[in-house]
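Trying the structure run again after the queue cleared.
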Amino acid sequence: MTPDAILDMPGEPFRLLIADDESAILELFSEILASEPQGRSPKLSELSSSLFGSPSDQGAPGRFELTLAARGETAVAEVKRALDENRPFAVAFLDVRMPPGMGGVEAAERIRTMDPMVQIVCITAYSDVDPREISARIPPPDKLLYLQKPFDPQEIIQLAWSLAAKWKAERDYIALRQRLESLVEERTSELARANAQLTREIKARAKVAKLVASAKAEWESTFDSVQDLILILSRDNRVKRLNMAMANRLGLSPRLVAGKPLGEVLKPDLHPGPYYRDLLEMCDGAFHTKELSIPGLRGEFLVTASPMHDAAGALEQTVLVAHDVTQRKGLEARLRQSQKMEAIGTLAGGIAHDFNNILGIIMGFAEMAMDASKDDATMSRRVNHILDACQRARDLIFQILTFSRQSSEEVSPLRVGPLIAETMKLLAATLPKNIAIEERIDPGDDWVRADPTQIQQILMNLCANAAHAMREKGGSLFVGLETLELGAAEAQALPGLSPGRHARLTVRDTGHGMKPEILDRIFDPFFTTKNPGVGTGMGLSVVHGIVQKYGGAVNVASRPDAGSTFEIYLPLETPGKAAGTLPARPDSPPSGQGRVLAVDDEKTLLEMTRDMLTSLGYTVTAVSSPAEALKLFAANPAAFDAVLTDQTMPGMSGAELAREMLALRPEIPIVMSTGYSETINPEKAAGLGIREYLLKPVLKRALAEAMARALTS
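Done. Tokens:
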């Protein structure tokens, strides 16, 4: 199609933008282009032919739509609005100089940025801007012409028609090229689709084969990555396949195991037991799950048998999956042991409470008998034997309460390293000469919250047991202390521990060791393997109780003829001051005076307490009922100078009685004695306002000192 034909096509008029600061020029453009005759002049046809190389004989009329602008800013705004309306300008005639605002060159730059297709004609009478600079600022050169003032009207007409024809031809060319490209792309796509289909058909078999190989490799990778032990057995219980976890556990290559009978793989003849029969029974074509101990695999397992049948429903193979539960079973055993120890501790605490009351009566009256028989040497000697026996019984009760974690000793931060080093100096002198001692105490931040006497008791009990295990043949005793950080998994393996920093005390001997059935019972109270009269069976029970009370844990490892290792874990504490030492006591208990209200539901113990306080110089009112004592006190609170009460009493506890009395008379001194209580301790007692807290059995000196402190504090 020729340019003339393009121009002669009916449609929208060509839009022209005229920008000049002189209104006369704008009027001239309007007259020239608006008065253009409907036929095309010969000059215009000649110019069109020279520009496009396609002479035309057609003379169909054309028309223009003019937009006039007196400033460069207005011209730029008109171009933007035209583009927004999708009615772009074909040609823009711009005067180079349009004071006082934006000039034609700057306006042309902005217009070119917005519309790359518009044909621009720069009009000037003279210009300070070099044409080469204008060409560089308003590319491309083929869409930029210059028109010198004054100009000929016919020249304007010819430029307008020629540039409009060029603008339309370029747009039509772009549209035609896009359409051709679209057709080529469409045909190319059809060809590509046909070619792709052909390629897919050609490669179908190869792709399927590759997918099968990939699926097989993926299945094998998944099969071997499973950490559970997997065996696939044929219908005659031969190994068809096993994963790498099973191969590693057996210590054999999968190729060496495949095809062998199950019995040969697990070696039941070397490890007789019911597990092999159970495994064979599980391969009966049904689904089974069972916990089994399999020596050949070195552990406890939750075994699942899953049958696989062929199309006829006959058993084709059985998949055995063994999940290792050895660690879980160990934790369960530890938990059962912990629960058993807790139950025994509760029972021991209750027994110790009742025994404390009985022992308190014996010791109290024995002390008073001792005072009354000072002139009778024989009687004094006999009573002194009674007191010695009671003292040993009291120590035994103390061990029971320690084991059951119901004792109420004062604890404070202390450095365990120096304490252990000092204790080992004392122990070294008592151990047999055929036992070599090795110490390794790492210096560091080894502060723990504990009673120093009980830490010594732990070490002495463990070392005494180690020495007993090596008494015949001698050996080596190792005592070590270190601090370490326990993670969540490590702490979980030691019931009762929380993650964090701990001190670990290790006592290891090279003695005769212990069998597993003995190892499971070593912390049971009164259980001992020693000969009668050699041990009480409370040593390790006390160690266990002390460690549990401090939030620690005990770990034991032992084998027959391979020695034993005890590891004591104690949580580290913020550094503080070590426990102090008590001041020296006077030879005789302090006497006193005052009116004391004594309350205890054990009447014999109450009688003993009354006589003991009376011998110390106090005036005593003894009451066996806490309700009666409260009634008596409420009637006249000023009638008493102090109150001595038991904690565990029917109807009302000592703490409740103290609370009621202090509400009536806040300054009344109250002393509490108890043998066992889950609800009260020295800190809680002090919080209630109780001035002194005594553990039964209470000796005369302890009672005298507590009463003196309560009355003078």
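Confidence is low (pLDDT under 50) at residues 1-10, 36-41, 51-61, 576-586. Worth checking whether this holds up in the mutant runs.
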